[in-house]
Structures are given as C-alpha cells and as structure tokens.
Design goal:
single chain; mainly beta; 1 helix; about 5% helix; about 45% strand
C-alpha cells in the first residue's frame, strides 16, 4: 500500500505541476474575460470617497455598460486610473505602497499575476520598446530615474537619467511624453517646484526640454529645448500626448497649464524620421486657432489626422473638455466635433482608434456614451451607453485585436 500511495502521490503531484504550467502558459498570452475586446476604467463617488472598477465592453457601437455583474474592483490593488494596459494585462507602479504589479481580470475580479517590491520612482511616463519590454520614467528623491521591465517574468533593471540640472527655484522634474523610435527614447520634461505655499501661483520655467536617450545604454545623448511653450506632454500613464506616424515622424504637443503656466500656448512640434532635432520648419500653435484652448491628450487616427481633447481657457485643469480633429501634416485645426461637453477631469484616456475610426468616450452632463467618428465620411454616430450610476469614465482600452 505504501508503494501505491507513493506512486499515486507522485502522479498527483505531476498532474498538479502540469496544470500549473499549463495555467501559467495560458495566462502569459493574455487572460481576459471571454468575448471581451474592450474595457473601461470607471469611477464611482467623489474624491476622496471614490472607488475604481474595470468593466468589460462587448461592443463600442451599441448596447450598454454597467457595473452590475461586470465590474472588477481595482481599489486596494491599483490606485486610480494611472495604469498601463497591453494585451489584456494591466501594469501599475505605486511607490507609496512600495510595489510594482502585473494584473488581469478574470471572473469579475482583478487578479495579481505578479507583484514585486518597488519604490525606486514615482512613475509619470512610459514607452514600449517591444511587446515584452516596458520602460518607465519618474522621479525619486529629487532624481530623474528609469526602470526597464521585462513583463513576461516581471524582472526589472533600474538606473538614473542625467537630465539637465535644476535651475534656481526649481526642485522637481515634470516628465511628459515618451516615445521609442530607432533605438532611441525621446522623453519630454521640464522643471517644477514642490513649494505648495505658492499655489496657485507656482513658479514657471519658461522652457520645454526633450532628452534624447540611447536605449542600449540609457544615457542621455543630447537635450533639445524650446522657449515658446512648456509642459511637453503630461504624465502619459494617464493619457497620450505624442505619436509616431506612418512616416516614422514623431509629433508631440504641450500642455503648459499642467505646469501652472497660464500664458503659454498648447503647441505641436515634430522630430522628423532619421533626425534627433526639433523640426525648425514646423510649429503648430493650437491655442491660437481654438480660442486659447489647451490640449491634455492626443490620439493619431491615421492619414495625417489626429484627435485632440482640448480644455477651455482658464486656470482649471478639470473644467469642460472638447474633442477636435487636426491636420498634423500642415498643422491646422480641421474642426471641433459636435459632441457634448466632456465633464471629465484632465487625465482621461478617452479614445480608441480602430479600423480608421475614432471611438470617443464623453462624460456628458446627462448620459454618457462612446461615440464613433469616421473621418472618411466626417460622421458621428452614438455607440455604447454607460448606465447605472457611474460618475466618471477615466479610460477606455482595446484589449486585443
């Protein structure tokens, strides 16, 4: 009987190991709710009494989305909407809790794939080098820092960036857009202050900077700058403010109000394919053609066009927002889309681009929808509706192709 028991035990252990390995292999390809192609990060309540959820979206073009039987609560695992999503996995860094994690939604719950101790930086920006390599940027102890993460195993390599030194009166790096192109990372940044006794009249450094970083060594090869505006992208863990187009040209836009600069414009710049300099022939002053509106987010929709989420003029970053179509090649405003005013906060990832169309989430005063905009026909169509007491749509995501 002992021999039988031992053999049976070995067989059971082997079976469990096979199941475990099979489960890990299945999870590594991206575990999402069956049939779910899209998701939304939703907020219920008012700060500080808020709760955050990830809800599946079956279709962008019709039906409804509710948290009833459809919401995986993020609270306690992931703080708010500063998450990075790729292939159905969510990544989050929280220096306050000292952990970096990889998560996925399964059976209505946000599950931990892996969490590792991590307090090296407070993340602001990121870029994907390839499908398995995520580079994040942020500040830690007054230093500009980075981490390179291999997301399959959640291994990490950290280091410091030799950005420009703080000018007098400034002690914070404000990191903005980050884009990987041609084995280099372009990182927008500026300077700020943590002396909140001066709020709302915080000191403004009238210059935007871009670090050109060699990816192999993570050393800063050069620093580009421009004095016509500042705030080269906000923290893109919340929403994008840059893109690389079909010609491999890099475009980025500024949001100076995010740096407490209420005078400079939102302006778009370009770094052309094969160069590491700001294109001197290109400068698109979006504020000048849009009643001084500012741009906290931008999405490329193809064929030389982009959608920008613009904010009315003023000192508030959480006021009414609108969506506009711009021609990025010529640097021109095409039109403001005929959508309700978006009542959401500044940091909203509100657009999915698919099949040449833009799907736009709007936090309206009455009913909240995702709208479909087809640039080929210049037509807006009302799509899926969010119902059931949701206060904010903070992110919409495409989970898989």
């Amino acid at each position: 009987m002992k021999t039988l028991y031992r053999n049976t035990t070995k067989l059971l252990l082997m079976a469990l190991m096979v199941l475990s390995i099979s489960s890990c292999e299945k999870r590594n390809v991206g575990q999402v709710e069956e049939g779910t192609k899209y998701s939304a990060v939703l907020c219920v309540g008012s700060w500080p009494n808020t709760a955050y959820y990830i809800a599946g979206i079956q279709s962008l073009t019709g039906g409804t989305v509710s948290l009833a039987g459809n919401g995986a609560e993020m609270t306690g695992k992931v703080y708010a909407q500063d998450v990075i999503q790729k292939d159905g996995f969510y990544y989050h860094c929280n220096a306050g809790s000292g952990r970096l994690g990889k998560y996925h939604v399964e059976n209505g719950a946000l599950l931990i794939d892996k969490e590792i101790p991590f307090a090296w930086l407070n993340w602001s920006s990121f870029t994907w080098v390839d499908n398995n390599t995520l580079v994040i940027f942020g500040e830690g102890k007054g230093e500009a820092r980075y981490a390179v993460i291999k997301v399959d195993k959640m291994t990490i390599k950290t280091g410091k960036l030799n950005l420009a030194a703080f000018p007098a009166g400034f002690n914070v790096y404000n990191m903005g857009f980050a884009e990987y192109r041609g084995n280099k990372i372009f990182l927008g940044y500026g300077f700020g202050s943590d002396d909140w006794s001066q709020y709302p009249n915080m000191p403004v450094f009238q210059k935007g900077l871009i670090a050109v970083i060699d990816y192999n060594t993570m050393t800063v090869e050069k620093s580009l700058e421009d004095t016509r505006t500042n705030g080269f992208g906000g923290p893109n863990v919340y929403a994008p403010m840059s893109f690389v187009d079909e010609n491999n040209d890099l475009y980025f836009i500024s949001d100076p109000v995010g740096n407490y600069d209420y005078k400079s414009p939102s302006a778009m710049y370009r770094i052309k394919n094969g160069t590491t300099e700001i294109d001197p022939t290109y400068y698109f002053n979006f504020s000048a053609v849009s009643n001084n509106e500012m741009v906290p987010a931008m999405w490329y929709i193809g064929n030389g066009k982009a959608i920008v989420r613009s904010r009315i003029a003023g000192t508030s970053i959480d006021t009414d927002h609108y969506f506009c179509v711009i021609d990025v090649k010529s640097g021109a405003l095409i039109k403001k889309l005929d959508l309700p005013a978006d009542k959401g906060e500044r940091m909203v990832n509100g657009v999915i681009v698919e099949d040449g169309k833009a799907f736009i989430a709007v936090n309206a005063a009455d009913r909240d929808y995702i709208w479909q905009y087809d640039p080929a026909t210049d037509k807006l169509t009302k799509g899926v509706e969010f119902v059931g007491g949701i206060d904010y749509i903070l992110r919409i995501e495409k989970l898989r192709d």
